[in-house]
Amino acid sequence: MPPRQPQIEIVEMKKDSMTFILSKTDASIANALRRVMIAETPTMSIDLVEFENNTSVLHDEFIAHRLGLIPLTSSRVEKFNFTRECSCTDNCENCSVRFNLHVTCTDDTKQVTSDDLFSTDADVRPVHREDDSIVIVKLAKGQELKLTAIAKKGVGKEHAKWQPTCITTFQYDPDIRINQNIMDRLDEEKKVKFANSCPVKVFAYDKDTRTVSVEAASNCVYCQECKFYSNDIGHPDLVHVGYKPERYIFTVESSGSLEPQEIVLSALSILKTKLAHVHENLKNEVDF
Amino acid sequence: MEEPAPQKIEDTTPQDMDEGELYDHSKLNDPIKRVEDKWKLLPAFLKVRGLVRQHIDSFNYFVNVEIKKLMKANEKITTDADPKFFLKYHNISVGRPSADDDMNGGDVTPHECRLRDLTYSAPISADIEYTRGVQIVRKKGVTIGRLPIMLRSSKCILTGKNPDELAKLGECSIDSGGYFICKGNEKVILIQEQLSKNRIIIELDNKKNVCASVTSSTEERKSKTNVVQKNGKLYLRINTFTDDIPIIVVLKAMGMQSDQQIISFIGSKQDFVDGIAASFQECYSLEIFTRQQALEYIGSKIKIVFRSPFKAMPTNRRSKVDEARDILATVLLSHVPVKNYDFRMKYTYLTLMIRRILLANKDPHAIDDKDYYGNKRLELAGQLLSLMFEDLLKKFNNELKKTAESNFQKQNRVQVFDISACMTPKTITDGFIHAISTGNWTVKRFKMNRSGITQVLSRLSFISALGHMTRMNSQFEKTRKVSGPRSLQPSQFGMLCPADTPEGEACGLVKNLALMTHVTTDDEEPPLARLAINLGVLEVDINTLSGEEITGDGGMKGYLVFLNGQILGIHTQPHILARSLRLLRRQGRVKEFVSVYLHDEQHSVYIASDGGRVCRPLIIVDKGRPRVTEEHIRQLSDGIFAFDDFLKRGLIEYLDVNEENNSMIAVYEKDIKPNTTHLEIEPLTVLGVCAGLIPYPHHNQSPRNTYQCAMGKQAIGAIAYNQLNRIDTLLYLMVYPQKPMVKTKTIELTGYEKVPAGQNATVAVMSYSGYDIEDALVLNKASIDRGFGRCIVLKKHATSVKKYINNSLDRLGAPLEENGIRNKKHEKLDLDGIVSPGEQLLNGDVYVNKQTPKNTTNINNNENRSDAEFFDTPSTWKSNPVFADKVMLTSTDEDHFLIKMLSRSTRRPELGDKFSSRHGQKGVVGIIVNQEDMPFNHQGMCPDIIMNPHGYPSRMTVGKLIELLGGKAGVFEGRHGYGTAFGGDKVEDISRVLVKHGYNYSGKDTLTSGVTGETLNAYIYFGPIYYQKLKHMVMDKMHARARGPRAVLTRQPTEGRARNGGLRLGEMERDCLIAYGASALLMERLMVSSDQFTVFVCKDCGLLGYSGWCQFCKSSLTMARINIPYASKLLFQELQAMNISPRLKLKDL
After folding, report:
1. Residues in CB range of B1129: below 8 A, 6 or more apart
2. Is residue B508 within 8 Å of residue B501, measured between CB atoms?
3. Interface test with chain B among A58, A169, A248, by most B beta carbons within 10 Å
4. Stretch (H or E) spanning B146
5. Residue contact A31–B792, C-beta within 8 A
């Protein structure tokens, strides 16, 4: 078997999501990539909150939890150390970013949002898209919220707030083939019924040519309805529903802290580092 | 359902009898048009009545009507000591709720009472007239006591306030009210279920003989009368007689002259004559022929009551005959009035009892079912309070009388005696508070001594509080193992929730009202009696009716007419009477809660207006058409009509359990038949508040719904809008509660959506890891990180700063400082000696630095006390770390300075925490799995919870499956699904939605393993299910100990987590060790690790000695040193103390 070269083919690229096809590799590799993207891609998130004044209706832990879940721009996350690996004793500029928030409500009500969080580092600030900033708490007249928050570098394995992705998934590319020989032998009614048996309209029946074709294979949810129907009419081999081997359609949706391609690249480099570590250790052990 | 025997339908539905010919029968087969949205009557009903209306109505009735009647009955106090003296009450009223102190100008809000441990009560004031010396004085508005006020009742300040105003008063606008606040505790007076009073009940005694019993109850007296059978003879049994008295003797004593008359009253048919013959025989064998003889006989059977020797015996002792006549007039069937010793009413009643017994002898069907719900009456807060009030008022009056008498006996009074100065409100106030806060209802007059009447309102979740208000307690003993009273009675249909009852000992005895149930209050009798007479009832009272006319035996076609259990008279056309009364009720001429019930077997018409009957509204159907039309519903939606208008216009009416027996009730329009009389408003109303939360309950196995009813009350969520302003003993709140994806109409109506208790979890029904067996759940760690199942626990810690009898006071000490460094334990304190809010309290921290004076008894004039005169009595934190959330300083009405500290801790779900869906499926967290290890679908969604599929087959909770389906469809459609009982979204429609969005119609998805990246070999049922976090959390339960405290007496380790106790090696564990033969281990567990003790035993005498010396033998030569459990040493000594001498025989091994 010749050595395989995994390939990536980008299908779609958006600001906050991307779809690509990873091919010529095993499920284990695809899954490793997915797992690393979820759990081990580092980002920045608020981890420590010091309250000076909180007269809002939500209590300190509540607000701290909400602050933690606000995605922070982490494109420059490499410049930070993990706090536990940093040379400082507590936290320092090299491993953390300080945020200030001070809001007093003078109107009837006021919403404290992620826009009110002021960062000391221009690279790390709350993700802001158009004009929907994230609400932290709603204040009533006279209430005040004053706090300092410290963001740290971390990975999703430790806490979900460090996950850079909303959705990271891959699916198998469906392989649906109609046995046209059998299909040609069916009458029109059965053809229509077969095409309609699929709840997600994978098949299409062309009235003019009187043929059934696979129209949208990617819709398939593997519900086997078409198989059930073909079994019912006594042609179990009428349709083949399977996966295309070694093709994985990846979807990566970012929370905003990293661009989708950054997530993939970061994950790949982490995978590489891991393999390098294995390689290193193996070399030392076996000692060629 | 409630249908009479089919052949009787024509008789029992008189409205159809003569109108039957008036309309075209052929049109009856037309399908009846559905009144769409008739369920809208339900919110309209709840809007005017509310869910706890029965409590509030009952309390209002007491406070506005009943209290005045009670005052009238006890209005005058006179004394023998001064015949000129009197005190008379004229008017009585209950004022506005207020507090004794002037903190807020007297007015008080319920929330202030909760916080300050006060009682939410209002003064009862009376206008009085009394003699002061020779003058007659009138005073207005004298406070005689304070009455705890039910929240949202007519006297409560919250009534009629809009949500904004309520919020200003610190009150939650969706709180139902209906409870009391007593010393800061919210107390509910549970509804008490009882057998109805003043009705004849035919039952079997324990010798399987038919007997009749009546529990009479009037304002003055309660008594029980039995007519029993022994060897085919009938006897009267009353407590006041030493022996059973032959019934004929009693009848003769009541003035029935001839045997012929007696027979004619009981029944002249042969069966009756045969049945009573033996009793006549007995009367003659006793040689009793005249009234005088009968009375003498009865007089000889009167129990001799030993009066206390201090009370003077009445000087004019009456003869036995007089006494017997008195007892017959007042004790026997005391609810039947006897005027001038005319017993006619009474013997009519008594002969009726006899007749019923004789009937039941022949026909066992005539025996009454005690569990039948028409025979039950519910006692509510109002009735119970009125009982209590009358008792307290009598006590109050007696005290006044005594004071007056003792004052008149004084020889030379300096001042003129003014009784109004002696009227201290304490008696009545304290009586109420004591009764409500302990739940012990003691009314000496009626020998009533009930406990557990009140309960602390459960504020665990909103639904538990609401469910508490609909709860009902039965007076039946819990220990007796009888199934009858516990089982679900068909007559409870629509009145009581079939699902909501606890498991275990109280099963079936504690019940809950259904959604639309109403409990009646008393209504005036005389106008109703007058009306019935006008409608042609011939009164028994007037000496015109013969026995035959009453019994209907001699070819007479009369039906007896009863009003609230009393014989009113007879009516020859009972159907017309019943029909006219019903028509009058529909027209609003008779109160809506009056019920008319025709009992054909007993040839009787029962009219009831008494309080405590359960009833429910139904749509009236006539001529096969429901009276409520779509037009009406439109007017209701437009707000032109209210629920009461439907009542007033005779479109709907209330039916009680008895009257339901005379009706044919259709559930749906399609079921309407020619003889249908009523139509259900909405079938979901058969369920109560708690069962109403369950989606698709009609698809579940019934015990599952019962389990959910119990668990919904333990769910953590939001409890009220004012939850953060409350300082409760224990309060669980959820951080992010959600509305359920699949809701029910009940959920919308009760306001559960506004204060939900649970979260919509995405559930995958599959097995995973093996940590999910036995109902354990697999939780996604990322979901927990993001806030799933997170909750807040708030706890109250109160400290009171007391004042002692020598006027010395507790004080708060400033935190200790040494060289500018705070004492470690005092680090969290503010300068006032109380913890600073927001600080974290760790084990050992002091949160209130209280100091108590050493001298609390002797009067010491030293005002400025030195530190040396105090010792520290601090409150120290001893538990898991928490935050001090709030500190409140206030004073109670007892002049105590009160400090309340609220501690707060936020918890995320951990291994062992308990979760439950809404289908009685509870489980604990078995493992928490990282997100990347979770299976995911093609969209990348992974479950929050993985549930093992083995939970389904044996429990048959199909409702849960449909909930998932409905929830999933709802998610894609962007709306909530409906799972209303006997309705809700249909599976077919849901499947169509799923398919529309590219999902399998059956709710199953293809998932990929997060661990290997391979597709799973099965389709996984995947979608949202509403999960509740239950209050049982590992953090509160986890416990272990190595060494620790021991009990003083036995020196064995203490018991329980709170006392840091040991873990018991119980009997069964001991048995295992014995069976296994691990004697050394057994010895270690039971003695060495528990209460090993070294004692000296004398080998000679076998008694315990001390330190090598035998006190008995006076010797130290024979002492041996052995190890025994301290408990056995204690036993030996205790035996010795009771003159038993245990001796140990020692042998060398």
Report:
1. B1093, B1095, B1104
2. yes
3. A169
4. strand B135-148
5. no
B775 is catalytic: yes
Classified by CATH at the fold level, domain B204-308+317-334 comes out as 3.90.1110
Spatial separation of the C-alpha atoms in residues B291 and B295, rounded to whole Å = 6
DSSP for B222-275, written as a single string: EEEEEEEEETTEEEEE-TTBSS-EEHHHHHHHTT---HHHHHHHH--SHHHHHH
Superfamily of domain B1091-1149: RNA polymerase alpha subunit dimerisation domain (3.90.1800.10)
What's the CA gap between B531 and A156, in Å, rounded? 81
- Cβ contact B513:B497 at 8 Å: yes
Burial class (CB in 10 A: 0-12, 13-18, 19+), B629: middle
Q: How far is B912 from chain A (nearest CA, A)?
A: 20
Q: What fold characterizes domain A44-162? A: RNA Polymerase Alpha Subunit; Chain A, domain 2 (2.170.120)
B-chain residue closest to A68, CA distance = B786
- Strands (DSSP E) contained in B930-1049 are 945-947, 977-978, 1004-1008, 1015-1030
Percent of chain B, pLDDT > 90? 34
Task: Give the B-side interface with A, CB within 8 Å.
Answer: 724, 735, 781-783, 785-787, 790, 792, 838, 883, 885, 904, 906, 930-932, 936-941, 995, 998-1001, 1004-1006, 1008, 1010-1015, 1019
Domain segments of chain B: what residues?
204-308+317-334, 695-712+740-790+910-1030, 799-858+865-907, 1039-1088, 1091-1149
Look at the domain B695-712+740-790+910-1030 and name its fold: 2.40.270
Q: Quick check: ipTM above 0.90?
A: yes
Kindly name the residue from B205, B541, B775, B885 that is annotated as catalytic: B775
Q: Which residues pair with B1106 in a beta bridge?
A: B1109
Residues of chain B below pLDDT 50: 1-23, 28, 311-312, 315
Q: Locate the domains of chain A by residue range.
A: 44-162
Distance of CA A139 to the CA centre of its chain: 33
Cα distances from B765 to residues B874, B952, B990, in angstroms, run 52, 10, 19
Question: And the tokens for B78?
Answer: 């006179």
CA B6, B8, B13, B14 torsion: positive or negative?
positive
- Whole-angstrom CA distances from A149 to A74, A99, B714 are 16, 5, 36
Of residues B724, B941, B1001, nearest to A57 (C-beta): B724
Does this model's pTM top 0.95? Answer: no
Task: Tell me which residue of B30, B375, B396 sits closest to B203, measured CA to CA.
Answer: B375
- When the pLDDT of each residue in chain B is averaged and rounded to a whole number, the result is 85
What kind of architecture, by CATH, is found in domain B1039-1088? Alpha-Beta Complex (3.90)
Q: What separation, in Å, do the N-terminal and C-terminal C-alpha atoms of chain A show?
A: 26
Give the pLDDT confidence of B201-242 residue by residue, as tens digits.
Answer: 888 888 888 888 888 887 777 788 888 888 888 888 888 888
Instruction: State CA A110 to chain mean position distance.
Output: 33
Q: Quick one: which of A66, A11, A43, A69 has its CA closest to A258?
A: A43
Taking the C-alpha atoms of residue B95 and residue B691, their distance in angstroms, rounded to an integer, is 39
CB pairs under 8 A between A and B: 95
* Contact criterion met (CB < 8 Å) for A221 and B999: yes
Q: Does the fold of domain B1091-1149 match that of domain B1039-1088?
A: yes
Cα radius of gyration (chain B): 36
Element (H, E) at B711: helix B702-712
pLDDT in tens, A14-45: 988 999 999 888 889 999 999 999 999 999 99
Q: Is the pLDDT of residue A218 over 50?
A: yes
What pLDDT, on the 0 to 100 scale, is given for residue B817? 83
How far is residue B529's CA from residue A68's CA, in Å, rounded to a whole number? 74
Q: Does domain B799-858+865-907 have CATH number 3.40.710.10?
A: no
